[in-house]
Design brief:
The chain is mainly alpha-helical and 323 residues long. It is 76% helix and 0% strand.
């Protein structure tokens, strides 16, 4: 049950979308959407839409169940999954706490009550992936493909009264309604591959001179690039490609773990602010909020603040780790 106070409701929606989105990603809108999508007050719909989107995108910072984690892991396979998840989870926890509107950090407890049934399954699935990664060495994306379908089928068979068949029919029906969003998504991915294969683009990024700067200044520049790419409408894959290309020119000025964390921030920011983001498109459609009102909102200021905190934290850690 959710409180009737607007601040408490948005807190609960944010935490609910964060926990459910950690495994279900865009499926979290199927949980939150029916409750608030038909609210008569446009301001209420927008407030809940932004809270839902922020909670989901903060989960991108740590959950292993996203393409972003798989993308980062494929470029930096030497970074243990648990380290990447720990850094991302710390940033996500800070983001959640500073976003709470009802009681600050003390408001996290009541907000968690509404998502208590999800904590066990989400935590168990994440721990399973971490253990499998440590034992097999396979990427998180490979493990998701191999492990999650049978686990989900088993869960539905054990817990759903009618088994997995109704969920399968609903999934098949919902896929047919995502044509426009999937076209935009596919086009953005194609653009990323084109940029990645363009030697002029790669050569330009390789000679930026960033490697001569202190780590905190490198992070500041990279965070600005990430936010700028999101506002320019670039898909997370394109932004990630740019970050990887820039990191290649640093000659070790940032650790692999720092760049890995930056890639997760890039994926989270693009998901929250880019017009090519499937999450933004689904948010606008589900809550009937104009796309521009989803992007140019308090979430933009929040992304800038989170990027500033990440810059200071990573910059300080990198400085301390070097002789």
């Amino acid at each position: 049950r959710m409180s009737s106070a607007p601040g408490a409701r948005s807190d609960s929606v944010m935490v609910l979308s964060h926990i459910s989105g950690a495994v279900m990603t865009l499926g979290t809108f199927a949980i939150v959407g029916p409750v608030f999508a038909h609210a008569a007050d446009p301001a209420e719909r927008r407030r809940m839409a932004l809270a839902c989107l922020r909670g989901l995108c903060l989960a991108v910072l740590w959950t292993p169940f996203t393409v972003g984690m798989g993308f980062a892991g494929s470029h930096f396979p030497g970074v243990p999954l648990w380290q990447a998840m720990a850094c991302g989870a710390a940033a996500a926890a800070l983001g959640l706490v500073v976003s709470l509107k009802d009681g600050g950090p003390r408001g996290l407890g009541p907000a968690l009550v509404s998502v208590r049934p999800l904590l066990g399954p989400v935590g168990a699935a994440a721990l399973l992936l971490v253990a499998a990664n440590a034992v097999t060495g396979l990427s998180s994306l490979s493990l998701i493909v191999l492990l999650m379908p049978p686990l989900c089928l088993g869960w539905l068979a054990a817990r759903a009264p009618q088994g997995p068949a109704p969920a399968g029919r609903r999934l098949f029906g919902e896929l047919g309604r995502m044509g426009g969003e999937m076209l935009l998504f596919s086009g953005s991915i194609a653009m990323g591959f084109v940029l990645n294969a363009n030697p002029v683009f790669q050569e330009a990024l390789a000679h930026t001179g960033l490697g001569a700067l202190p780590p905190v200044e490198i992070m500041a520049v990279m965070v600005l690039v990430v936010i700028g790419c999101a506002l320019a409408g670039l898909h997370a894959l394109v932004t990630g490609t740019i970050v990887v290309a820039l990191a290649a020119s640093l000659d070790g000025a940032l650790s692999d773990l720092a760049v890995f964390t930056l890639l997760l921030f890039a994926w989270s920011t693009a998901a929250m602010l880019s017009v090519s983001s499937l999450a933004v498109a689904v948010t606008a459609r589900t809550f009937r909020v104009p796309l521009s009102r989803v992007i140019y909102s308090s979430n933009l200021l929040f992304a800038a603040a989170l990027g500033t905190g990440l810059t200071l934290a990573v910059g300080a850690a990198e400085a301390l780790a070097r002789p």
